[in-house]
């Protein structure tokens, strides 16, 4: 009875609060802790009481018949129990006072213990008490040890005119009883001494009121022992009062329990109402609310709800026990047979069943709800309440089904059945709202290559059919680790969970799913990858970044302004200086390898490669006489040559798509030590792309024949690069270059170092390489994959 929800309804006085808290424990089984504490207290009492009895010298006053009568009377009086604190108050002084005055005082504690055991035995014999109460009765006799000791020390039986001895004996009994009670309750139940003292003070008041009555009866019984029977009428009256008090307390506790249950039901109903607001768009949550709400509203102990729909069978259970299961099953079976509400009884259990129909025009969903309780049938108004609850649930279910249909329509691409851009934004937002400790995702954005030509050649209906086929293949490829989407037109997207050992095959499967070839057409897909949340914490930015990378990686897209411009410039270089075109292409291949070795991003790699291929575009403005001069150039001619980087920058800046490339071309002849041109930049002031182009250009120039000298050869060229590292060239770039060239030599001189760069055909390798680079840079935990 320590429920916080009932604190305002419970007693505030410590003694009464202790009575409420301990009421339920009075009928429970004795714990091992209590058994040990009471056994120890009883053994100690017997030791002390036995020692006191042995010291008695007044055995000539001991009357066995009188002692037997007093023991029986004490046993009867000990059953008059007024609940108080964690125990009971007993009018023991009605008999204790006569025992102390009519019998040798030293024998009284043992006789009191016998009387208490006798009373407990009587309760057990009529099955109104527990057997262990006989053991616990022995330490209850501690209150007799104090006054008996005082009278033994007084040396004679006091007369009625010696109040000081009686008061001293009473105080001794109270104090010894208090000490024993505190020790026993603290050891057995953990009750604080402060609370126990409050309870003891109330018991002392009762004992002080009854002790004079006991003294008067004892004084009368000195002449006639039958006068002891005068105690019986008063004892009967006290017994009636005690039983009335116990009944009232039990009734109050029962009402308190009912109040607690009703408050719990009310709180549960409010909680269910909150759940209903929160789950108004969830059919599973609605059925759970209907079942739990019905059990709570009708004060049932359990229930069962079944729904049969086109997709699956739902079975919900709450609080079902073997005792109520037969009645619940019978009620459900009755509904299945008749289709009408009704109740069934099995033994002392009643079960109420009501049919459920959550069907819509397109989805038949039918079933039944049954709830059960013990001891009483369901009333007509309760049957109406349950039917009304089910009806409201039916209306809510109809709204849920309709909303789900609209939501699916709003979040689905009508052509392919994949999620649309809104669905992708929702899924990205849900993932980004999770803690960073959750598994990251890779966002892959695809744009079809060749789809416009396919549409133009075969017509829009054929194009729609192609998009439908590709969408189905992409959904199947992404099914194991993520979801597929169509964002519109020929743009698709995949959101994949990062499973390191399975991610690259999943990426490859997605790229291959968007590939189809036939007579007169070839469809592929360019891809842009973003690692979430490491690179983007906002759905819009994630899509923008993926879109930028996708177009950066796009090859063979004839409508791309950057590609068109680059192709035109490369053809101009080839027409003007065929040797420069071949040299620039070789520099581009080497620059691609070095940029990847230095873990530059996909966009940066693309810019470096284009700059490497176009770094000599400014030489188209240099006269052939200077470019092809077999002898050393004079100062004026060198000044003319040094203008080619500025001229190349101006040419490239004319095309907005190539402006990032123009900046690299301008600085491609700067030196690490600051002795380069045109700006004299030093070390990291030089763009990294320009430093890469400088090393690759120098190597290609050294291993190629020039009008003014013959080629140096591979090893001398590498030696020259090593010697100039830290002077002319960036040492880190030189180191990366040496590693890549050594790898090329191991693969063979004819090996194509970057086939996807030259042909644009191997898009699968390009996509997996980009994803691998993202993981290595931002998610080290995936490297073990």
3D architecture notes:
With 785 residues, the protein is of the alpha+beta class. The protein has 30 helices and twelve strands. β3 and β4 (313-318) form a beta hairpin. α3 (64-77) packs antiparallel against α4 (93-102), α7 (142-154) runs antiparallel to α8 and α8 (163-189) packs antiparallel against α9 (193-221). It is elongated. It starts with 13 loop residues before the first helix and ends in a 7-residue tail after the last helix.
Features:
single chain, about 775 residues, alpha+beta, five-stranded antiparallel beta sheet, elongated
List the helices and strands and how they pair.
Blueprint: H1 14-23, H2 32-54, H3 64-77, E1 82-84, E2 87-89, H4 93-102, H5 108-125, H6 132-137, H7 142-154, H8 163-189, H9 193-221, H10 231-278, H11 283-297, E3 302-308, E4 313-318, H12 325-338, E5 342-346, E6 349-357, E7 366-374, H13 380-410, H14 421-432, E8 441-449, H15 451-458, H16 460-478, E9 482-488, E10 491-497, H17 500-513, E11 516-518, E12 521-532, H18 539-553, H19 561-576, H20 578-597, H21 602-614, H22 624-627, H23 635-641, H24 644-653, H25 659-666, H26 688-702, H27 714-724, H28 731-747, H29 755-759, H30 763-778
Antiparallel strand pairs: 1-2, 3-4, 3-7, 5-6, 6-7, 8-10, 8-12, 9-10, 11-12
Q: Summarize the biggest pleated sheet.
A: 5 strands, antiparallel
What is the typical, i.e. mean, pLDDT? 77
Portion in beta strands: 5-15%
Number of helices: 30
Tell me the helix content: 55-70%
Number of strands: 12
Q: Biggest sheet: strands side by side, in what order?
A: 4-3-7-6-5
- Please give the radius of gyration in angstroms: 49 Å
Unreliable stretches (pLDDT < 50, length at least 5) are 5-9, 555-561, 749-761
Shape, per Cα inertia axes: elongated
